[in-house]
Design goal:
Shape: globular
Number of helices: 13
Strand order of the largest sheet: 1-2-3-7-4-8-9-10-12-11
Number of domains: 2
CATH topology of the largest domain: Rossmann fold
Oligomer: single chain
Largest sheet: 10 strands, mixed
Helix content: 25-40%
Number of strands: 12
CATH architecture of the largest domain: 3-Layer(aba) Sandwich
Strand content: 15-25%
Radius of gyration: 24 Å
CATH superfamily of the largest domain: Alpha/Beta hydrolase fold, catalytic domain
Order of helices and strands: HHEHEEEEEHEHHHEHEHHEHHEEH
Length: about 425
C-alpha cells in the first residue's frame, strides 16, 4: 500500500500510524494501571509525599500552636475538598429511646442496652440503634470502644433478645442475609470480630452500631440514610459533598453526643474503632471530632492509613470505581493520578494527633498494603513530636506478630483481612496505657 503513495502521502500515513500506535500504547498503559494491581515492592513508583509541616503559604510548622491554629485547619479543609467531602453544618436535635435493657448479659458479666437514636421528629425517619455493653461490677463510668459493625447489632452476639436489625444490608446468604434483609440465621455471624467478653473483663465498655443504619452501603444516589436529611430535590451534587464515609463518621460523632450523657460510660475516654472501610471511617471521625480520646484503624488500606501514592494493592481508581459513594466526587479526579493529590494519608493520621493512634495490618492482606499502612503512621510522626509524643524512628516495619506501642502503635499479625482476638488484645493493652 505504502509503495503506491507519493512521498508526502507516505510520510503523512506514517505519522498517523505512529500517533495511533502511541495512543494505543498510552491507552494500554492506563488500562494496565487501572485493572492490574501491584503487589511487588520493587515496582512501587517513585513518589513524593506532601510536606506535613509546611503550610500552603510556605509557613513552616515548628510548634504545636502553629499546627493547631494554621496547618491542621487547612489540612482538614483539603481532605474535605479532595477526599471525603463535607456534610452541611449545624446540629440536628437527637432523640433517644431505650429499646431494651438486659442486666445479665454475657453470663451475668454485663449490662447490655439497646438505645435508638432518632435524627428526625418522625420515628420512621433516619435513626440508628446503639448496642451498649458495660461491666455490671463497675463502680464508676468506664472507658469504652465505639465502632460500627457490618452485619447488624444482632450479629455481634447470638442472643435472641437483641433486636434483629431491619435496615438495608448487602446480601450474603452464607451468613443469613437475603433480599437485603437480616434473618434469624445471621445472629452471631460477626461475633468472632468482637471480643465482647474480653473487653468487659478488662473493665471497658463496648458500643457498636450497624453502619447501614446511618447510611446504606450502596450507590443509591444518597436518597436514604442521613443524607436524606440534608439533600433535597434532584440537583447535581457538589464536588465536595460528603459521601458515605463522611456520613458514617458523622454518625459516630452523634453516638458520642449520646454517650456524653450516659452515666455508665466515661465519654472523655472513648476510643473510636473501625475495620476495613470502617477503619477509613474511624480515621476520618478522629480527624473531624477531637473528642475521641483514641483512634484505631484496623486494616484500613487505600483511603485509610495506607499511602495512596505508593499505588500498591487497591488504588484510588479501583476504590472509586467499585464504591463511588464512599468519597466525594472531587476525589475521582485522582483516579490513576495519585501523584497529583495534594494530600496523602500520613496527613489524615496526623489530624488525630497528639491523641494516641493505633494502625494495624494483616500479613496476607496485601490489598490493603500493610507496609503502606505502617509508612502512613511513620510519616505522621513529626506532628506527634511537636506535642512531645513518642513515635517510631525507623521506616522499617516490625516483624509479624511483634507489636510496637509508644504514643502511637502498630502491628502486623499473621492471617487475612479480619479482626481477631489477637488484634483486640493489642488494642486493650494500648488502651490500658492511654485511657486509664
Amino acid at each position: 500500500m505504502f509503495g503506491m503513495m507519493n512521498p508526502q502521502s507516505r510520510i503523512r500515513s506514517g505519522l498517523v500510524f505512529a500517533v495511533c500506535l502511541l495512543l494505543l500504547n498510552f491507552r494500554s498503559s492506563l488500562m494496565l494501571h487501572a485493572e492490574e494491581f501491584n503487589y511487588d515492592e520493587s515496582k512501587v513508583p517513585p513518589y513524593t509525599l506532601p510536606d506535613l509541616l509546611k503550610c500552603e503559604d510556605g509557613t513552616v510548622v515548628d510548634s504545636a500552636d502553629v499546627w493547631n491554629t494554621k496547618r491542621r485547619p487547612e489540612l482538614l479543609q483539603m481532605f474535605e475538598e479532595h477526599v471525603f467531602g463535607t456534610l452541611p453544618a449545624g446540629k440536628i436535635p437527637l432523640r433517644t429511646r431505650v429499646r431494651s435493657s438486659v442486666p445479665d448479659a454475657l453470663d451475668g458479666k454485663a449490662l447490655r442496652r439497646e438505645v435508638t437514636v432518632f435524627f428526625a421528629d418522625d420515628d420512621n425517619g433516619p435513626h440508628m440503634d446503639l448496642l451498649i455493653y458495660t461491666p455490671v461490677n463497675a463502680t464508676k463510668p468506664v472507658p469504652a470502644f465505639l465502632g460500627y459493625n457490618f452485619n447488624g447489632n444482632h450479629a455481634v452476639e447470638k442472643d435472641p433478645r437483641i433486636h434483629l436489625t431491619d435496615s438495608w444490608m448487602r446480601n450474603n446468604k452464607d451468613i443469613g442475609i437475603e433480599d437485603n434483609k437480616a434473618t434469624e440465621a445471621s445472629r452471631g455471624s460477626e461475633a468472632s470480630r468482637w471480643a465482647v467478653s474480653t473487653i468487659i473483663n478488662r473493665g471497658y465498655g463496648l458500643v457498636t452500631i450497624y453502619y447501614g443504619d446511618v447510611d446504606p452501603d450502596v450507590d443509591d444516589g444518597f436518597k436514604n440514610g442521613i443524607h436524606s436529611l440534608f439533600e433535597k430535590g434532584d440537583s447535581p451534587r457538589a464536588g465536595d459533598a460528603g459521601g458515605s464515609i463522611s456520613a458514617w463518621a458523622w454518625g459516630l460523632s452523634r453516638a458520642l453526643d449520646v454517650l456524653e450523657s450516659d452515666k455508665a460510660i466515661d465519654a472523655r475516654k472513648v476510643a473510636v474503632f473501625g475495620h476495613s472501610r470502617l477503619g477509613k471511617t474511624s480515621l476520618w471521625a478522629g480527624a473531624t471530632d477531637q473528642r475521641f480520646a483514641m483512634v484505631i484503624a484496623n486494616e484500613s488500606g487505600c483511603g485509610g492509613a495506607a499511602l495512596d501514592k505508593r499505588i500498591f494493592g487497591e488504588t484510588v481508581s479501583r476504590i472509586n470505581t467499585s464504591f463511588p459513594h464512599w468519597f466525594c466526587i472531587n476525589h475521582r479526579k485522582y483516579n490513576n493520578h495519585e501523584a497529583a493529590m495534594p494530600v496523602d494519608n500520613h496527613m489524615l493520621i496526623a489530624l488525630s494527633g497528639p491523641r494516641p493512634v493505633y494502625v494495624a495490618s494483616a500479613q496476607e492482606d496485601t490489598w490493603a498494603d500493610p507496609y503502606g499502612e505502617y509508612l502512613g503512621l511513620y510519616h505522621a510522626g513529626p506532628v506527634f513530636k511537636l506535642f512531645g509524643k513518642s513515635v517510631f524512628e525507623s521506616d522499617k516495619m516490625p516483624a509479624v506478630d511483634t507489636p510496637m506501642q509508644v504514643d502511637v502503635a502498630y502491628h502486623m499479625r499473621t492471617g487475612k483481612h479480619d479482626v481477631t482476638d489477637y488484634d483486640w488484645e493489642q488494642y486493650l493493652k494500648f488502651a490500658d496505657t492511654h485511657l486509664r
